[in-house]
Description:
The structure holds two protein chains of two kinds.
Chain A: H1 14-28, E1 35-40, E2 59-64, E3 70-72, E4 75-77, H2 79-90, E5 102-105, H3 107-123, H4 128-147, E6 150-153, E7 158-163, H5 169-194, H6 199-202, H7 208-220, E8 225-228
Chain B: H1 2-5, H2 20-34, E1 44-45, E2 50-51, E3 55-56, E4 62-71, E5 81-84, E6 87-88, H3 92-103, E7 114-120, H4 126-138, E8 143-147, E9 149-150
Parallel strand pairs in B: 2-9, 4-7, 7-8
Antiparallel strand pairs in B: 1-4, 4-5, 5-6
Helix pairs in contact in B: 3-4
Amino acid sequence: xxxxxxxxxxxxxxxxxxxxxxxxxxxxxxxxxxxxxxxxxxxxxxxxxxxxxxxxxxxxxxxxxxxxxxxxxxxxxxxxxxxxxxxxxxxxxxxxxxxxxxxxxxxxxxxxxxxxxxxxxxxxxxxxxxxxxxxxxxxxxxxxxxxxxxxxxxxxxxxxxxxxxxxxxxxxxxxxxxxxxxxxxxxxxxxxxxxxxxxxxxxxxxxxxxxxxxxxxxxxxxxxxxxxxxxxxxx
Amino acid sequence: xxxxxxxxxxxxxxxxxxxxxxxxxxxxxxxxxxxxxxxxxxxxxxxxxxxxxxxxxxxxxxxxxxxxxxxxxxxxxxxxxxxxxxxxxxxxxxxxxxxxxxxxxxxxxxxxxxxxxxxxxxxxxxxxxxxxxxxxxxxxxxxxxxxxxxxx
Lengths: 235, 152
């Protein structure tokens, strides 16, 4: 019986096929990361003894009623108006009485405070308040070194969202979204001006240097959003 | 010369397996990339609202999912229902007991690493959302994220 010689299969093009398939899958597979707006719920406090007194200029009050209508600082407004107000809330003239107090942070002030609290913290190590204040001013010194003199918003300033029980989730999200849009715009502007890169590029970065920058930007424009109790919360 | 060709047999040539590792690796990579662990099946219909200021959440973070919407099956009723991870919650109290079960006996800072991921229908009113979050606050699980649609 005659044996036929089998020709060897040419495997040279196998790699091409493999690459073709690989590229096909790379293109067609979508990595859907969940896209989210993050929020931190307030801690549960058993009994509030004394609600702190809040100055009206320290609060940007946004109210959404059951018909999803918006009230900004007691004035009828649209969702689109919120962003503008938020920017004004953080970034305004130094002596504007309608908005939270801004403190110009500069070298002389920081040095003066640092000296004062260094002495106090060394003198009274048992009082944690001094050490805390000292570390806060040290953080400001770092920020000052990175971005130069800036205005710091009062630490009592906050944005409150007041909702009705029947307000739709959609409205809440758009209010939250607009507030974040305002804050992000301010942060981006500062980031682009001082570091030369867009904020969105470094926001989620895992590089320590970038994280330091994000920390500074967040300190200058802090996100302080409170969900105020709605009037009919008992119902 | 003929010395070498004496016992010449025509045997079957072997198929080249040189590219086999390539194929196997390719498949491996493909599965690594596309595998999603434990995709939960939803029992409620959710149409998430759109937003622009969204951030991407790392899929590897430990998450508890909450869906709020109308049930897809009429047997579960017609009002808005809350689904926590795999099951519909019969009432708000069930959410808290689920959280307690999930936490186990550990009272330390477990919740700092867990993100409570909400997928809420845009028409749901805030009362339901607030009631669910009240249960979270009772358990000190404070990290919340809302999954939304990217506005393009």
